[in-house]
Structure formats: C-alpha cells, structure tokens
Design brief:
Shape: globular
Largest sheet: 7 strands, mixed
Helix content: 25-40%
Number of helices: 10
Distance between the termini: 12 Å
Length: 343
C-alpha cells in the first residue's frame, strides 16, 4: 500500500510515494477506513516544527472521506460500512492518500449519504476555518456586519455563506472581474462587493459609506500587507491599518496572518475602538483534546450544512492518485490553494 509523504531529511526536500503497512491488530479506539477522496492543502512545516513533529517522512493529505471497514474493540460511534469524514491529526503516521488508514474514532463524523466524498474532502478544512473564525472567535450574531476579504476564495466563500445563513450583513472584496461577477450573483446575496483589483483605496471609504461611518463588527482576512511597499504577492492584500480603520467600536478582527506585527499606533487605534484581535489556527482542534466534543459537534454541523445546501463550496475537480505528487508540489508552491485526489 502506497502513500504520499514529504521527505525532509535530504538535500532537496520533495514529495515522494512511499510504501506503508498497517498493523495486523487494530487498536481498541481505532477505525480502519477505506479512503475514497483526500483533500490536499499546503504543509505548514514551521508549525510542525513548532509543535515538535520532526520526521524524515511527513504524511501528506489529512482531509479524508471514506468507508469504515473495521472497528476496534472499544469503538462506539461507528460500524463497518458507515460513510465517514474527518481530518487526520497533525501527528498522524498515516497519509490520507493511502488506500486504507487507521484513525481514532474521535476525529471522524458520519458523512450524509447525498454528500459526495470529493466535495466534502475538498471543503472540510475551509468549512472548519470559517466556523472557527465566525462562531468561536468573533461570536457572530444576527444583525452584525462582517467584512470578508477575498470572498472569492474557498475559505472566503464559506465565511460568506455561513454568515448570511445566520442573518449577518456581509461585505466582501473581489480580486478579479470574474470573481466580482460571481460574488454579486451569490444567493443569499452580499450587501456589497468591493473590487479592490481596480482601486485598493476604495475599501475604507466604501465600507464607511455602507455602514454610515460606524465600521463593521467583524473583519476576516486571508492575509495582510504589513508594509506600505507592495510586491506582486501582496498587492491585493489590505494593509493592517486599513483593516483596523474599518472596524467599528467593539469590533473583532480575525486574522490568518501567522506573523502579524502591530506598531504602537495600531495598538492605540485598537484600544480607542475597544476592538480585539484573534489569530485563526484551526489546527488547535486536533492538537489538543481539551475540546474534542465541541470539535466533533462543529464537524457534524459543517457536513450537515453542506448536505442541506446552506454551505455550497466551489467544486474541486478531482485528480487521480498518479497525479498526486505533481499536484501537491503545485499546492505547496501556493500556485493552487486546494486540490482533491480521488482514490
């Protein structure tokens, strides 16, 4: 049985196909799953190093959907032939691209029958991030106003749909003319789509005009520009001062920027608004068992919302297993944000 791994202990680190073998005896709380689809997201090698996971071979592919083949003696949630979906923990020895994997039952939930394995494997990570940002961090409630930056991304789209479902007034930004048209045609509709690819300076003035000068209750970014000087990668990202400026009194900023630095004037402005800042790291759910029950509730709610059409992710075209190595290299270089492999 073969899986995809990142080989770190060589002169030129690269993705490789590696043979792997599962133990003959299944652990008491483990579930053996036949994988049907696996989502590919960029490996955060710095995060793995920070939490002490240092291996020569790091498993690749963690968002999985499949069918239960066998359960351990103490498994109580699942039975053979159940369709399941979940995210492998950071320290999992298994690659999600293996035909068979062993995973603790507390990382899985039932997959609704009408939800395709490819769809849920491709969107589960972004759904979890959106849920964590809006519910766990920002405490979203009906009547709030929300600015989602880069609403055309998979993560941004999940945030928009989840917020609209809960009665939140949503503003978003578009990075291309195609994205702008797509976002304006969304149903339920957003309050305003701001085309930052035309003029980034419009962001603050448009948001303030739309909110009567009050600013928004919540801002969710997909990256931040820390310097005034622009590069090709950051030219469409908002500057940190612009984000703070569009926040209303008591507002909440949820950032995906791992190394955000705030200067004293930025902190002063946040203080004057009595606003708060939270760092979004969805990996904490599987890195700690402190809130495992809550995590499973979130996963279950996400897949149910996908099944009923509340969350409608952009479909990912599945690639075959033999293209997984090349596809993952593209994802890791951030030339493509997400990919799904069908097994």
């Amino acid at each position: 049985m073969k899986g995809l791994y990142w080989r770190a202990g060589v002169a030129e680190p690269k993705f490789v196909i590696q043979e792997t073998v599962l133990p003959d005896v299944l652990g008491s709380h483990l579930v053996r799953v036949q994988v049907k689809a696996c989502g590919l997201s960029p490996l955060d090698l710095k995060l793995l190093n920070d939490v002490g996971i240092q291996r020569d071979l790091i498993p690749v592919g963690r968002e999985v959907s499949g069918v239960v083949l066998q359960v351990g003696a103490k498994v109580s949630f699942f039975q053979p032939q159940d369709e399941v979906v979940g995210i492998l923990p950071l320290d999992s020895p298994c690659s999600g691209l293996c035909e068979l994997i062993d995973i603790d039952e507390h990382y899985l939930v039932q997959k609704p029958e009408k939800l395709s394995p490819v769809c849920v494997a491709g969107a589960l990570r972004d759904g979890l991030s959106a849920y964590t940002a809006l519910h766990t961090h920002a405490r979203m409630a009906a009547g709030h106003t929300l600015l989602v930056l880069d609403g055309g991304s998979s993560f941004g789209l999940m945030c928009i749909q989840l917020a609209c479902y809960h009665g939140v007034k949503v503003f978003t930004t578009s990075h291309t003319a195609e994205e702008h048209t797509f976002l304006e045609q969304l149903r339920p509709s957003v309050a305003k789509v701001i085309p930052v690819y035309k003029d980034k300076s419009e962001l603050l003035s448009v948001v303030m005009e739309e909110t009567g000068g009050l600013g928004v209750d919540i801002v969710i970014d997909s990256g931040v520009r820390l310097q005034e000087k622009e590069s090709d990668e950051t030219k469409l990202l908002p500057h940190k001062h612009d984000i703070i400026s569009v926040l209303g009194v008591g507002g909440h900023w949820v950032t995906s920027h791992k190394e955000l630095q705030l200067d004293p004037p930025d902190c002063r402005l946040l203080h004057l608004k009595s606003a708060s800042l939270t760092f979004l790291n969805h990996e904490v759910w599987t890195a700690s068992s402190a809130q495992q029950g809550r995590y499973l509730h979130i996963l279950k709610d996400i897949v149910e919302k996908m099944s009923t059409g509340v969350l409608r992710p952009q479909p990912e075209e599945a690639v075959p297993l033999y293209e997984a190595t090349v596809t993952m290299e593209t994802v890791q270089r951030h030339q493509k944000k997400k990919a799904v492999v069908q097994l």
